[in-house]
């Protein structure tokens, strides 16, 4: 079927069914009426510029309601505009096609169409259209994960919007930058840009723009745990969207309100508002928003212990997020599905989703650390370019002034000589200060290089001694089996030993990676509300097989309300290392006990064992930075010697302290403190 026939059928469908579904949205009705009216004229031509404009405008209006309509209308508009040599119409229709592919998650195709649209917009020097296209290109780079390119283009967009005095685009671009920083958990910078947006919106005086900003701001406050501010902002925006029947934003606002209740543990009201969003999404095509909403409903059902419903929504979110390459929500879905399958005791599926979650988590966190740096560098480069331009302008102005006042130089020669001498003295002083600072920087860099080299040597040493041995033994055993020197029955006898070696290798690698990141200044602490008793139970389950092999009893005496303000991943490493050490140094049929005591501003956590204990000399060394005290367990288990020094770094990064009490051979007790949950709310500007 030709594009023209498809479009004709689409317009018939819209004219028949559109008023019934969307009678409260007059703009699309008006555009459709204008197109039909124009086509009934005797002298109608598809190449008419008004007809092309109406097709592009209707496609834009249909973006979140029927994405295929956006594609068909843009394609038809482009064909007509090309036949008419209408560069403005071509650029706008290519812009519509770029938007369509952006929403489908086909980012390379989207950028290709946007670039074609940009070239045409520059040919006709339509600065407002150029600004719109540049903003969308920046957004696609943001979705692709190229934050440096996105931020650079957003900043250039701000320059252009300021130049042409386009407050509407200034508001949009600054809000996009705020969202970019929020996605990196840099909430201070995000709030800073939202405040800029709010001032611009006050200048514009459009309550819809203000409501959109309040919705995004509410989402950020919810992620920060500032639920009162989140609820205030989202309620303010909902009133506006309901008043104007802006369905795509209303679906988003309902989802944010559901998220706010979910963060507060109120599953009943969370589900209510998520369901309101779901109803709208049936008539709104917004894959990214729908994925976030579906995961929210899934988490709410999981909180209500309705696992079957939770799984249904999580699988749907998982499928859509993978299709559009929305990796953060794919990771979120994988985490939910891991918990559901674990609850069902389907450990094969649980393990699959657990591994996918950690793979995405490690990839996303690594990318976020890199992206934070590139964002900062891009912003600094952009600011430097502006400063250089200002300096060049100042130099040009100074040069003009020198020509103007050249005639006065003869009369003021003595004064000029005096000024030159003083200026030279200042320059010399400045150069001396710069030389001093650069020398100090070189000394600092030299020390950092030495530390990095020591870290590298230690990593290679541990890899060579503690990992190569078990791997080589594993390879040797496989070779014996492959060469037929041992049969299957003999090979199976080595399975417990192989499992233990692989667990050791995995545990060692995790510690090496965590320790390496802290040494290379790559480990960033991101505190949130964390239930310590849950972390302890998870690690007991994780290491239960290892403890069972030695007939050890692990007891968790903690209450269920131990909430702390810490980085969950870092404290998980602390608990796992302390538990692993306790298992390692406790003889068979021993006991390991977890307990917690509430202090005024912190929780004091203890891990006690009935093991061999630690002598005083070793106690003085085990927490030292870069310590490599390696000892063997009761069953000859071996470690890297990094565990306790890593624990100390992680605890101190979370504003805590760690120490040990032990008297060989009567067991050991490790203590560490963690701050309680803070209740201070951040004031909105």
Polypeptide structure, described:
The protein has 685 residues and is mainly alpha-helical. It is built from 26 helices and 7 strands. The strands form 2 sheets. The chain has a 5-stranded mixed sheet with strand order 2-4-5-7-6. It has a two-stranded antiparallel sheet with strand order 1-3. Strand 6 and strand 7 form a beta hairpin. Helix 8 packs across helix 18, helix 12 runs antiparallel to helix 13 and helix 24 runs antiparallel to helix 26. The longest helix has 70 residues. The radius of gyration is 32 Å and the shape is globular. The C terminus is likely disordered.
Please give the share of residues in helix. over 70%
Structural class call reads mainly alpha
Radius of gyration from the alpha-carbon trace, in angstroms: 32 Å
Shape: globular
Give the strand tally.
7
Write the layout of secondary structure elements.
Elements: H1 3-22, H2 26-39, H3 49-61, H4 67-83, H5 87-103, H6 107-123, H7 127-144, H8 147-163, H9 167-183, H10 187-204, H11 207-224, H12 227-244, H13 247-263, H14 267-281, H15 287-303, H16 307-323, H17 327-343, H18 347-404, H19 413-482, H20 488-493, H21 495-519, E1 528-531, H22 532-542, H23 544-549, E2 553-556, E3 563-566, H24 568-585, E4 591-598, E5 602-609, H25 616-619, H26 643-653, E6 658-662, E7 668-675
Parallel strand pairs: 2-4
Antiparallel strand pairs: 1-3, 4-5, 5-7, 6-7
């Amino acid at each position: 079927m030709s594009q023209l026939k498809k479009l004709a059928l689409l317009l018939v469908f819209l004219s028949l069914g559109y008023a019934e579904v969307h009678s409260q949205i007059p703009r699309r009705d008006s555009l459709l009426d204008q197109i039909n009216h124009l086509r009934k004229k005797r002298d109608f031509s598809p190449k008419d510029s008004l007809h092309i404009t109406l097709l592009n405008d209707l496609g834009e209006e249909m973006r979140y309601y029927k994405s295929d309509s956006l594609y068909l209308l843009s394609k038809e508009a482009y064909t007509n505009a090309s036949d008419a040599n209408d560069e403005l119409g071509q650029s706008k229709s290519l812009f519509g096609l770029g938007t369509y592919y952006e929403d489908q998650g086909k980012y390379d195709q989207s950028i290709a169409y946007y670039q074609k649209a940009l070239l045409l917009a520059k040919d006709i020097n339509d600065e407002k259209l150029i600004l719109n296209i540049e903003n969308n290109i920046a957004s696609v780079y943001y979705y692709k994960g190229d934050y440096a390119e996105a931020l650079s283009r957003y900043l250039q967009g701000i320059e252009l919007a300021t130049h042409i005095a386009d407050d509407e685009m200034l508001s949009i671009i600054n809000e996009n930058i705020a969202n970019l920083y929020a996605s990196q958990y840099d909430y201070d910078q995000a709030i800073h840009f939202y405040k800029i947006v709010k001032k611009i919106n006050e200048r514009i005086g459009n309550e819809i723009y203000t409501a959109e900003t309040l919705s995004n701001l509410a989402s950020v406050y919810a992620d920060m745990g500032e639920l009162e501010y989140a609820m205030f902002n989202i309620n303010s925006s909902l009133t506006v969207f309901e008043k104007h029947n802006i369905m795509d934003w209303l679906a988003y606002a309902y989802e944010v309100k559901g998220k706010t209740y979910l963060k507060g543990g109120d599953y009943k009201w969370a589900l209510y508002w998520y369901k309101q969003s779901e109803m709208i999404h049936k008539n709104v095509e917004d894959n990214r928003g729908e994925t976030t909403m579906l995961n929210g409903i899934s988490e709410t059902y999981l909180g209500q212990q309705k696992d079957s419903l939770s799984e249904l929504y999580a699988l749907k979110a998982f499928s859509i997020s993978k299709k559009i390459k929305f990796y953060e929500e794919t990771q979120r879905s994988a985490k939910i599905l891991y918990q559901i399958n674990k609850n069902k005791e389907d450990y094969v599926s649980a393990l699959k989703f657990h591994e996918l979650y950690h793979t995405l988590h490690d990839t996303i966190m690594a990318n976020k650390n890199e992206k934070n740096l590139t964002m900062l560098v891009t912003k600094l480069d952009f600011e430097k370019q502006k400063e250089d331009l200002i300096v060049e302008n100042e130099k040009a102005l100074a040069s003009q002034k020198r020509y103007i006042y050249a005639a006065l130089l003869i009369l003021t020669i003595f004064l000029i000589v005096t000024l030159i001498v003083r200026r030279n003295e200042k320059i010399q002083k400045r150069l001396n200060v710069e030389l001093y600072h650069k020398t100090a920087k070189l000394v600092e860099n030299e020390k950092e290089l030495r530390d990095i080299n020591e870290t590298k040597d230690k990593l290679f040493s541990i890899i060579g001694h503690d990992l190569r041995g078990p791997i080589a033994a594993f390879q040797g055993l496989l070779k014996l089996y492959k060469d037929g020197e041992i049969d299957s029955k003999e090979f199976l006898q080595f399975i417990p030993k192989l499992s233990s070696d692989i667990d050791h290798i995995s545990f060692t690698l995790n510690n090496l990676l965590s320790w390496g990141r802290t040494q290379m200044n790559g480990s960033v602490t991101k505190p949130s509300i964390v239930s310590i008793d849950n972390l302890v139970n998870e690690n007991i389950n994780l290491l239960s097989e290892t403890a069972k092999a030695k007939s050890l009893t692990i007891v968790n005496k903690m209450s269920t309300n131990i909430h702390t303000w810490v980085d969950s991943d870092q404290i998980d490493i602390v608990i796992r290392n302390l538990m692993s050490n306790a298992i390692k140094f406790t003889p068979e049929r021993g006991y390991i006990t977890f307990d917690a005591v509430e202090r005024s501003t912190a929780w004091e956590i203890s891990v006690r064992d009935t093991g061999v204990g630690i002598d005083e000399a070793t106690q003085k060394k085990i927490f030292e930075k870069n310590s490599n005290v390696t000892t063997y367990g009761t069953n000859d288990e071996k470690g890297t010697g990094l565990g306790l020094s890593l624990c100390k770094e992680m605890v101190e990064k979370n504003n805590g302290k760690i120490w040990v009490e032990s008297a060989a051979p009567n067991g050991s007790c490790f203590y560490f403190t963690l701050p309680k949950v803070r209740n201070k709310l951040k004031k909105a500007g």
